[in-house]
Write a structure and sequence with these properties.
Shape: globular
Largest sheet: none
Distance between the termini: 33 Å
Number of helices: 15
Helix content: over 70%
Number of strands: 0
Radius of gyration: 20 Å
Order of helices and strands: HHHHHHHHHHHHHHH
Length: 385
Amino acid sequence: MTANVAGYLLQLLAGRWLGVAGYSEFASLLAVQLLCAVPALAMQNVVAREVVRGASLSAVRAMQWRCAALVAAVAVVLIPVVAGVLHVGVWAAAGALGAAPALVILSGEQGILQGSNRFRQLAVVLAMAGTARVAPALVALALGGGAAGALWAGAAGIIAAAALAARIARAIPTSADTPARRPAIGVLPVLRAVQVQAALMALSSADLIVVRIVLDDVDASRYSLGTIATKIAFWLPQAVGVVLYPRMAQPAHSSRAIRDALSVLSVIGIVAVLGAAVAAPLAPLFAGQDYAPIQGLLWMFALHGAILAVLQGALLSAIAVERTALAAVTWVGLALEVVLMLAFARSIGTLIGTAVSVAAVTTTIVAVVVLRTAARVTPREPVTA
């Protein structure tokens, strides 16, 4: 909650300080940064699963450093591509991509804590990381550093958070680090998890990129600020997956953990949508009157996030039992969403309506497959990818 609130505060203040004409650049680069965090999210899930299964911490950390080096190389190549596609400065694009390797290391240490059921320490790391990322960015914005300055300041905070997380994780003894189990862990399991997380993050962020193509700067900024409600509904129940994921990775408890996760996520989503509908009239007070035209649509933005949160829970279970081919459904949904938006969406309402519709269909298909598959798995069955 602390990390999420810090992130929402950054976007709210950025929307006010950068203005309705300048916020869309910052929001689009944050969306790119989120996509670049996909390897980090996958790393945490794979590390937690391997720790649950008894992998040594030395092998786990060797894997995360190899992945961080690979991510750094890819980020360097993508900087001019992002700058050209989004029509932003190279320095700003580099700031958005620069934090990606540190995020991989940070998430790897979080995965060790998660897989070891050290949730108190994990909570400290998550809160610390969220604050370290946001506080320097806010200072940069307040000093007039603009989008590029804020992104670089946030990247510096993430690097510091990764170093502190490593110290916290190394100070905790775990039974997983035993001399009997020190096999090397390859990058391939992470790559399989990456494509699952990439599908989810792309589906949750594609609208923020398309909006700069189909709408003018003012409406694009309004839409971008509306997606704060999407992010709140999406990330609010993140702890559900974090806590239940180690049980999902154990065949004896997987089916029950998946059902529990999807049920709780659905209930929290309903509450989030109702909360957005009730609180909508307050939005212009916090973000400014320029954003008043979208207050009647905030419940739809929240509905989008709530649906994606259920999809995230279903895809987490697929990673836990190594059935990652299910992500193909999400990739198809992403392609359909982008095509429909580019072809027909010319207003804020049609954009968010398209996003909600595609997310709902995709989530329904994935959830049904996950629940049926989990019901057939027993503790004695081998789990295959």
